Amino acid sequence: MQDLADFHAPVSDLFSQPKSASDWEQYRLSNEQLEFFEENGYIAGIKLLDENQIEALKSALDEVMDPKHPLHGLFHEFHSNESGDPNKVLFHSLGHWRIHQAFHDVIWNPAFRMVASQLLGDRPVRFWHDQLFCKPAHHGGNVAWHQDYSYWTRTIEMQHLTCWCGLDDANEENGCLQYVPGSHRWGLLEKPALAGEMDGLMEMMTEEQKADFKPVAIPLKAGYGAFHHPLLVHGSFANYSDRSRKAFVLNVFADGTLSDSDEPLLEGVPAIKKGSKLEGKFFPLIFDPAEV
């Protein structure tokens, strides 16, 4: 078994790759969708997976969640329950793209790559890191209100993007994603504990921000995704339903992003000197619009 980060191309046939410029057109966002993202800080309801791909990724999830997996040591982070409360379970991990070919290849999903490049200003895209967020039925924990970039200030400039994709149907009942439209214009706030209390971020907001704090639920069918700005405030409530809520996240940045730390950017990844470009084994270039 091998670290799949060594491979900067698909290693299976799970995702068919476009062979011509016209093949890519089906994945492009419309001008109206791009304008919605600019105004609100997110776009949702983007189909990313078919039924076979969903099942392949759910099977892969069952495998990598096992702490006895032979490649378990390749995770950057692995939390069977990040909340620490047995009544509020939140499975959260980083690094599973290195371990299972389905999670490796979903990074090269053309439907994801095209949209990511468009939302980053039609720029080349590099992979940052992946995440899994799983809330079991009846006692799945919350993800506190937060901005992604508040955890990523070890990289500059802020030219990042997040894609959330469900492997189960998600709605308010089982703790779907929630966004605060327009909050990407609030500037950078302090970072709360990710699996902490929902109102932790509220203490860091101005009175004007609190007045504009109007979350909207983002229900999504399995296989559909949402993309959001790195400063958009978002979170999700606990799952008390009888259905699980499994999802994966792909985080990317525009090519040319630099390290802003002499410390390792991810656990198990060699340090990249402050001021140096993020590239190489762990930060592959996944899309270049000039090549389409």
UniProtKB/TrEMBL annotation:
Which InterPro entries has this protein been placed in?
Phytyl_CoA_dOase-like
**Which SUPFAM superfamilies does the protein's record reference?**
Clavaminate synthase-like
Does the keyword field hold Oxidoreductase? Answer: yes
Cofactor(s) the record lists: Fe(2+)
Enumerate the UniProt keywords alphabetically: Dioxygenase, Oxidoreductase
Q: Which Pfam families match?
A: PhyH
Molecular function via GO: dioxygenase activity
- Name assigned to this protein: Phytanoyl-CoA dioxygenase family protein
- Species, as recorded: Algoriphagus sediminis
Source taxonomy lineage? Bacteria, Pseudomonadati, Bacteroidota, Cytophagia, Cytophagales
